[in-house]
Write a structure and sequence with these properties.
This protein is α+β, with helices and mostly antiparallel strands and about 400 residues long. It contains eleven helices and 15 strands. It folds into three domains: about 90 residues, Helix Hairpins (Orthogonal Bundle), CATH 1.10.287; about 90 residues, Sandwich (HSP40/DNAj peptide-binding domain), CATH 2.60.260; about 100 residues, HSP40/DNAj peptide-binding domain. The chain is elongated.
Amino acid sequence: MSSRDWIEKDFYRELGVSSDASQDEIKKAYRKLARELHPDANPGDAKAEARFKAVSEAHGVLSDPAKRKQYDEARRLFAGGGFPGGFGAGAGGFDVNDLFGRAASQGAQGGMGGLGDLLGGLFNRRGGGTASSATRPRRGEDVETDVRIDFTEAVRGATVPLRLSSPATCGTCNGSGAKPGTTPHVCATCAGSGLVTRSQGAFAFSEPCRDCRGTGRIIDEPCPECGGEGVSTKTRKLTVRIPSGVDDGQRIRLAGQGEPGRNGGPAGDLFVRVHVNPHRVFGRDGKNLTLRVPVTYPELALGTTLTVPTLDGKVTLKVPAGTASGRVLRARGKGITRKDGSSGDLLITLEVAVPQNLDSKARDALEAYAKATADHDPRADLNALLEGR
């Protein structure tokens, strides 16, 4: 991309973010647009494909802190009417490339001293001493996907197949960008640096090489699959191991399974966000499982033995006489076993089930019980507070 292209394009507008957006905001905006505009989601839609390329180009600059800083510096120099007529040649405007020629002629007057060298530095290096950022190894982007599993799979762990459609190293050219049987060669114009240095009178400036687009390589016969990019969109099948005890919303990292790196850089990571379907009977509290068990009043008052389900079978519990409704009993070791080997418990809450309808025999029995316990006041403490005692 030429210096003029870089200045004229509004990458912030392409991503729909403000110029002071954080790196996280830029990444989120890009991922949202990439999902919406991806060719797989819009087959045959040329406009969506063009927007997808523009969004990817914007992200490529704004996601790199060094490139973003240079881009912002360049925009500050030219934005706000600092140069009448904008960037276009003709119709009252001017060509950015002409600016450097004028800089040389005006340098003796002190009006444009050093501007050519400054702008050259903004477009990848200062003073011609470092290599182009386009040729440096760059780590691939991280990729995030979602998977939904059952409650029991979250408790016990599971192996889940994933199907991803994302950029990956081209399998035809193995990432070289060249047609199989051919090899890219070093750009003769920039000698592989990705930059060219030009002189205008007393000034010198550097900009990305137009012949190799700043890559330092020339591909005479591009790969038919990826078009010379070395990366193509593929549908990949992966298998991810979900550890036992995973929480709803937890992310699992698969190192090196994200987008491939550029220029020999390492691949990014894949993050799998897990969503857990609720269970119709069991709940969860950390590494403990929870269960609510309906009981009758006589069972609590007289005591009983209960058999309740667990995820591994059944367990028998003794309920002492006089147990209050809401009491929690504990079945040790019947909860979730963590990766570190620690286990939780099954917490069983006893709740009195009140019948909605009573036959005459049950009603008579309850009325007789009410008379027999008339002297017992379960609200004695509350009544004392109400009476100020």
